[in-house]
Specification:
7-stranded antiparallel β-sheet, 21% strand, 7 helices
């Protein structure tokens, strides 16, 4: 889906019209979900998962190191860092910040001994808003002025949904979670602007209340859904054609439920065209040492 550079979404019935400038490139790699690559991946420790990624293993991380918090990564030059921080503060549903590094640092308090340049399954390299590479190691691209933002990920609340009996279709089907660019505009911050990106989970009607309740108790990892039901309300024309991830088969009575997604920050990179940025590949997250329940509110 393509979007315009209109004023931020206001919640009215006036929806932005499409334009090519907001479209994100589709994921070019053919990595299989890691739970297909290793049926024991759900039981890995975060450190063991990061060691495997450092050795070159790649693939979507839904269900990996179950019970441990996964995060999105975006690294921008220091002269864009304030605007990125402000963009996240103004758009906390899609961009809840869990940590921000010092310029040039590739470490985080969320994972002892981890290296943000090597310990994700796959990265994306951006120049002037264009995707130029999707490596499994970005040491060759690293710059001393990069500030990294670690943003909450909806994979974190999937444990809570599962414990409440909510089926997770993309994990059941061995697929990456489907993600879509919407027609809702984020609130801009300086030079940064762009559309909201959402992730989809098909939820049986008898489990809808539980899905909303359990995710709302984890606001640091996107919280409650932003939309349930008819995808056209988000400007999504065809659920079988996600912008990222894989299409997921729904059961006849399933209700499409959409959560704000951290890939929103990548959409801002495409729309705003900073000279350089590094991000995770959609669905291939950084595994932290934090436990999911740390982010659950009473």
């Amino acid at each position: 889906m393509n979007r315009t550079q209109n004023p931020p979404w206001s919640g009215t019935t006036d929806r932005p019209s499409p334009t090519p400038t907001d479209r994100l490139p589709s994921h070019g790699a053919t990595d299989r979900p890691l739970l297909l690559a290793d049926e024991h991946a759900h039981a890995w420790s975060p450190r063991a998962a990061r060691d495997r990624f450092r050795d070159g293993l790649s693939g979507p991380t839904a269900g990996v190191a179950a019970g441990h918090t996964q995060v999105n990564l975006i690294s921008v030059p220091a002269d864009w860092a304030y605007e990125m921080l402000l963009f996240c503060q103004r758009n906390p549903k899609p961009c809840p910040v869990l940590d921000v590094t010092d310029a040039g640092s590739w470490t985080t308090v969320l994972a002892d001994g981890a290296d943000l340049r090597t310990d994700l399954p796959r990265y994306r390299v951006w120049r002037d808003g264009e995707l130029v590479d999707e490596p499994t190691d970005v040491r060759a691209y690293w710059r001393e002025d990069l500030v990294s933002f670690l943003i909450g990920c909806s994979f974190t609340f999937e444990w809570a949904l599962s414990e409440a009996g909510v089926p997770i279709r993309h994990i059941e089907q061995g697929r990456n979670v489907p993600m879509y660019v919407t027609n809702r505009r984020c609130r801009p911050a300086g030079r940064l602007h762009g559309p909201l990106v959402v992730s989809l989970r098909q939820v049986p009607p008898q489990h809808l209340a539980a899905a909303i309740r359990e995710s709302s108790l984890l606001p640091a990892v996107h919280g409650a859904p932003v939309h349930c039901g008819d995808p056209s309300g988000l400007g999504i024309a065809d659920l079988a054609r996600p912008d990222f991830g894989d299409p997921v088969d729904a059961e006849p009575d399933d209700i499409p439920v959409f959560w704000a997604c951290g890939v929103t920050a990548q959409a801002a990179v495409v729309a705003s065209r900073p000279p350089f940025a590094l991000t995770h590949a959609p669905g291939q997250m950084f595994l932290t040492d934090a436990r999911d329940e740390q982010y659950r509110v009473a």
